[in-house]
Amino acid sequence: MTSIAAESVSTILASCKQTRFHIESPNYRELDVEGLNITVTSHAAGEKAAKGKGKGKAAAEGTEILSNAKLRLKAGSRYALVGRNGSGKSTLLRAIAEKLIPGIPEATRVSLLQQTGIGPANAGEPVQSRSSGGTEGPTVLEDVVDKATAKSDLEREISTLSAGVNSTDPYGALRALRRLRHERMEKRLFVLDKDARLRSGARGLQARKALVEYEKAVAQSAALNEQSADDISPETLQAETQEAAEMLADLQLQVEPSRMADIESRAKKILAGLGFTDAYMAKPAGSLSGGWRMRSALVTALLQETDILILDEPTNFLDLLGIIWLQRHLQNLEDLPAPPTLILVSHDRSFVSSVCTDLLILKDKDLTYFHGDLATWESAQAEKKLHLTKMKEAQDKQKAHMQESIQQNLAQGRKNDDQNKIRQAKSRQKRLEDRMGMQVNSKGGRFKLSRDLAGFHFSSRAEIAIPQDDRGVSITLPDPPDLRFPGALISLENVTFRYPPPVKGTTTAKPAPTLQDINLTVSPGDRIGILGLNGAGKSTLIRLLVNDPPPLGSQQTGTVTTHPRLKLSYYSQHAVDALQSLGHANPSLTALSLLTSEVDSALDEGELRGLLGSLGLPGRTASDVPLRKLSGGQLVRCELARLLWRRPGLLVLDEVTTHLDYETVSALREALRGWGGAVVLVSHDRWFVRGVVEGVVDDAEESDAEGKEHEKEEGVRRRIVYKLADGKLTVLERGVQQFEEGMERRVRKLMGE
Questions:
Q1: pTM here?
Q2: Is 391 exposed, middle or buried (0-12, 13-18, 19+ CB in 10 A)?
Q3: What pLDDT does residue 698 have?
Q4: What is the residue range of 622's domain?
Q5: Do 29 and 47 reside in the same domain of the chain?
Q6: Last residue of a domain, one of 625, 642, 659
Q7: Which end of the chain has fewer CB atoms at under 10 Å, N or C?
């Protein structure tokens, strides 16, 4: 069976196996699809496939995401979808959400939060500090309730029927009913049309017949809408007038005040948990910035009644308070009578490990499953590889010994012309070739030739296959330059900073200080983490550190001192937006050409390609793919390359993990943890901060004892975690854990526990 997406997703082709015994499960929270193939093609190739021509060529020209995979979701389970950037995770999620995969019933309710775009450059600013923008349109609260319940559609239908029923025209109710029925039939026609495309063979023929029959019914409905009053019998008029009144009553029950009040109450709780104040809930939804629009979309997804809940990077624009609240909310889904099945994509390992019960791993165009978290899976993979390696080494040693014995017997047999010995040696050689192989199957049980070896002709055992390590992301940070004379890299002494007062309004009072009496010193080799909620002033503090000019009218007191030989590289949380703007301004600009224009012959093309390749932008991806077509994760890699070629002595990183896959986050964490330069890090990713700043080695949170002892001996490394709140910077003696505990207390209070 083959599916071709509708207009908006016409480049996704999906097929799977179905037999005549396949029966749709009434449990829409489960999926069990065999032989799943998904290919992303060009628009032209999709059109050819839609016409039934050039399907082989279309598939060949496309990018294959899955090949003969098994998609199996158990009702109520919480899956973390894991895979590298570019492996096709978002494509798979969209194929599920759009029900482009045969075997997903049309009645399945799927709620999707997808990272379809990047917010504008000011997306990270606190929503309370932004202007309200437009004053028209629904409020934030009204907007999420409407999108989650289709309230506006229901109210439109109620309005249409009410006007007809209350009309002085005796045919008003009938005409209103027929108009609404026709609109609903047209929507149903779209579903049947897609169903006919999804199916082939006998089922496809049946679906196409159903489509043709329904097209006739739609045509008849259109004719009824054009029917004159003279052609309508009194019996028909009475029956359809009564039907209109009953439909109106049913619709009014769906928007019954008590039901809508309950939904609105739930919406308020979710909005509050994700950082919306009461005042901001009442502001126009059109005034939201990019990051807050994503939060609003997340609220809508959580509010909907759904069978499958899909969340693609839901933590990207959340601070730690919002992340912990969402973590608790998703954990509490299991208490529902029929909890939805969750599919989650996130680079935040602490969040994923706390929420998800299972891993869904997209790798090598296949899907594999693991019950447990990422750390357990990685440990299990390492143990499996070690076990198989030892088995193969022992077997190779045994085979070498047997081979030597066979050769000796052959030599002796030929020397003495002993045919029995020669035949015996050849028989042993055959047994060696046929029977030496796997002693256990992939599940750990005893190997059985007829069961565990694919194919019809079983002549030999399968060889022991040791899983090959992926070519991991290798991030090598250049050694920091020699400063020649000692001293702090950056020092802030008693710094107070105020933004200019709002232009609108008549108040002349000074604005409250964003930062107050800040004292901060960054020395060579330091690891400094800055934690705080959105709007606390973290980005403002970072701009002071990197000497980013403040807005006109700002007020600043205190002293900021910088080492005269300091080389500093700054990763802004809006770096991806800036690169996207560059790409759209210059459509032919690539990652390689961008770096070439910036290095000014400091590095040759080979060195630049090596740097980009080590960060996950190899070969033609770096030189041929335009910047505007790179994904968010690829743009982060490009920006990192722009920072690293300068050989900085200090890296200032503001939310650098956003858009990266977990493997790249892990590689960057490991590289930064032992780098000789200094790092100032702002991030809501607890696992990342623990590794980079606190020196934690793994998920068991065991400190790098040898590294810390070495640092203590040399006296060159400080590891400090600060909290920025109410404009003041304070040291967290217990680091990330102390901040996390404070956020958990606030979350419990928000949830009324």
A1: 0.76
A2: middle
A3: 65
A4: 574-642
A5: yes
A6: 642
A7: C
